[in-house]
Amino acid sequence: MAQISPYNDSMRLGMGFNSFTQRLCNYAVRPVGAGFEAHPDPPQYKTSAVPHSGNISNGYEVMWTAKFVNTMSEVAQSLNISGAPQIRCDFAPPGGAKTSASFNDTNTFAESDINYLIQVRVSHQRFNHTEFEFIPNLHQSEFTRLYGDSFISGFVEGGEFNALISVKLRDRSDADQVKQQLEAGIGFTATARDLDQSQSAPIDGEITIAVSWKCGGDILDGGMTEWTLNSLKAIVMEFPRKATTCPMRINALLTKYTSLKGFREKDIQGALNYENTGLYTAALLDAYLDYKCICRSIQQISRKVEQGEFALVAKEEMVELAELFTEAKEMPNGLSPYKGSIYGLVKARKDCRIEMLKIIREVDTVEEQPQVACDLTRPQQYLDPAMFRMLLPTTQDLKKARAAAAQEQLSCADLTRKLEISERERTAAEISALGLANELK
User: Fold this and answer.
1) Which domain, by its residues, includes 424?
2) Phi/psi at 219 (5° precision)
3) How many CB atoms lie under 10 A from the CB of residue 377?
4) In this structure, what are the phi and psi dihedrals at residue 126, rounded to the nearest 5 degrees?
5) Are residues 309 and 229 part of one domain?
6) Is residue 87 part of a domain?
7) Helical H runs in 307-397?
8) In a domain, 46, yes or no
9) Is residue 52 part of a domain?
10) Among 219, 288, 325, 366, fewest CB within 10 Å belongs to which?
11) 3-class SS at 306?
């Protein structure tokens, strides 16, 4: 089964491709019995008539997906994006290349309590019914760097719509209820009654909707000015019809060089195999984005400390981390908790960036040595973000502390006042009882 990768206008039939970095490479194949056209133009599509019914014809396949996602690696996998270019493009300076998953802001994703991914994919695979042969007498030194591990053997045409709904709740205890509400209102199996019920209860929180799509036509209604849950559902349901009206290339089909007889007959040095790197690369992506969020959080806390809104308290030494440090390699700060001061935060932020650089370096290592992704005996090359968080000082919100202290002081004053009143009433009662006793005598 051929792999697929997001399409871009630079792709051409027969072009080499690195499936790990998703980078275009030099040509290493050519069609059998035909001249090799190095730069054929992509096909030009003409708008056809919209189908009269809701059924999609002409061999198009429609796939609907709506699911909750917890990590960015799940989003990247759903979009057929490798973790390696995601990490590199995020680290690249402004103006660098971006991947298809960049339609979503990673900070918004990390800070949200609920992330709901919706995808509609209308596809028609166009295998070119062309046999390819390996070009003889290729330069074999560092083969993968020059030619990749696969080549473009065809394209997937149609349309693709992606939407990520991120919800930051005011009360996290409402998470289950809001999930049910999203499934009822946006899910593809929802009934009209479910939709009415979901609209009757507004979501108490901040909602962010990130959208991207690929098709040759305008999918937006003329009067639409913003994305809402209602408008999103309407566009999603209508998208397949519009995608088949004016399709475009959405993916490239990739074929491994090992499928070619001419390649197998040669003892090629430097040809690499990335088939078993997916899980490890996804873990690298999630760890990298976790550190990105930690670094941003440290910066925000530092600002609060400087403004006198937060106070810091260093954590105590942890025996488990000390034991881990004796087995670990190049870990920051000796795995000791950071100081409860602005200087401790500065050191933590620096170490956080170092860990991000280690992950980027690990991506480079996997590209050159794919076998390390499956080496269970190899020490971890970076500190797990969860352990790094354990080293950070805890914060105290001084505003809340002052408000709580003031409230406690008011409560104490009120209690004292009530006690004084009670004491006066008791004394008056005793005097009255004493006077009555004297009269009886």
Assistant:
1) 400-441
2) -95, -10
3) 4
4) -110, 85
5) no
6) yes
7) 319-327, 342-368, 385-391
8) no
9) no
10) 325
11) helix
State the pTM of this model: 0.81
Please tell me whether residues 370 and 408 are part of one structural domain: no
The full length of the chain comes to 441
Number of domains within the chain? 3
As a whole number of angstroms, the distance between CA 163 and CA 125 comes to 23
Q: Are 101 and 117 in contact, with CB atoms under 8 Å apart?
A: no
Q: Please, are residues 291 and 38 in contact by the beta-carbon 8 Å criterion?
A: no
CA nearest neighbour of 73 among 65, 81, 85 = 81
Q: CB under 8 Å to 225, separation ≥6 — which residues?
A: none
Residue 223 shares a structural domain with residue 243: yes
Tens digits of pLDDT across the chain (441 residues): 578 999 999 999 999 999 999 999 999 998 886 544 444 445 444 433 333 334 455 678 899 899 999 999 999 999 999 999 889 887 665 444 455 456 778 888 988 999 999 999 999 866 555 678 888 888 888 899 999 999 999 999 999 999 999 999 998 888 999 998 888 887 666 555 555 555 556 888 899 999 999 986 778 876 677 888 888 888 888 899 888 888 899 999 999 999 888 888 887 878 899 999 999 999 999 999 999 999 999 999 999 998 888 888 888 877 666 666 555 555 555 678 899 999 999 999 999 999 999 999 999 999 999 999 999 888 888 999 998 999 999 988 877 777 777 777 777 767 777 777 676 666 666 666 666 556 655
Q: Which residues contact 439 (CB under 8 A, 6 or more apart)?
A: none
- Residues with Cβ within 8 Å of 229's Cβ and at least 6 positions away in sequence, in order, are 165, 182, 185, 186, 207, 209
The tokens describing 155, both together, are: 């394209």
Q: What separation, in Å, do the N-terminal and C-terminal C-alpha atoms of the chain show? A: 112
Q: How many helices (H) and strands (E) does the chain have?
A: 13, 12
* Residues 325 and 303 grouped into a single domain: yes
CA distance 66 to 109: 16
Determine the Cα–Cα distance for residues 219 and 213; give it in Å rounded to an integer.
9
For 308, the 3-state DSSP assignment is coil
Distance of CA 342 to the CA centre of its chain: 30
Q: Are residues 23 and 147 in the same domain?
A: yes
